[in-house]
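Predict structure. Chain length: 367.
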Amino acid sequence: MESTQKLSLVKFAPKDKAGFFDTLKARVDAYFKDNNLEMYGNSSMKWKTVVMLLMYLLPLAFVISGYAATNLWLFYATWVMMGLGMVGIGCSVMHDSNHDAYSGNKTLNKHMGKMIMLVGGYDVNWRIQHNILHHTYTNIDGLDQDIDAGILLRFSPTQKKYGFHRFQHIYAWFLYGMLTILWSTQKDFKQLKEYEALGLLRKEKMTYRYALTRLLIYKGLYYVVTLVLPLLFSGAPWYHVVLAYLLMHFIAGLSLSSIFQLAHVMGDCEFPMPSDERKMENSWAVHQMLNTANFSPNSRFLNWFIGGLNRQIEHHLFPYICHLHYKNLAPIVKATAQEYGLPYYEQKTFFAALKEHGRLLKQLGNS
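Prediction complete.
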């Protein structure tokens, strides 16, 4: 990413295919009005929040209490459950909250969004990288940081290719497992400095000093609770604590990376670039349809556990709507897309989507 000016210069076409998004938005608005529904979460969202938090906090308390260390298999199983809890919190609670979709109360959304620190992240950086950059410039190299993994991974045909990329479909999965470890260590500090230089912290109404102070406090609390306390009180040897801690993060990182990459780094997606005048060929909504994919739409478990992120098309078009509604909005979106001659990319199962993602990684590494 070169400068704040470059970000502001990229413009999408003002009109899409004969008013696709205007028609779709009117139909979605009518759905909520006709069914007397709000676009935010309901009581089931509150219960889900409780379940996801308990999935993470109860095992953590069990570890700190010392009871988990009575059996080594139980000790590691407890940390595995914490890793899954991190996924549930990140996808089902934090994600909606930082999009202001969890509740109609913006203050509640703001506080619930801070749950990202339970996964080792920082809510300010997340909103800039995810809400602003990724959701606006999806799959545009140099602007969407979700497809910028440094030189080790090539996620777009416009990115420079190195010889070792021909093996990326093999080693990428290990790197995916490092996601939350990087979040909890160096990534947030690096991003905060970058966003200050780009002037993006102003969008969060924060100074760099204030944001950095908060970041240091959050990281300190995170490490005290998730690593220092288990080292001091779990009763397990320090090396088992460290290994279990890394296992927790690897499970969370691999799961979260796979969920998000299956939405955009897929064979059907276009990875467009702006013209020399920094203009995009399509409107923003059409761009989203051409660069986003769903997977496993009929899985009740995935719809529940990963916060509807298997329906990324609906999420990218309406990020301010709680994921509880995606299942009912999907037929509206799909029918409208077909009516306007737009694709609706979808893989029937999670494993079919993983296979397609791996195929694209291999293709990008060899072509």
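Summary: The first helix runs from residue 4 to 9.
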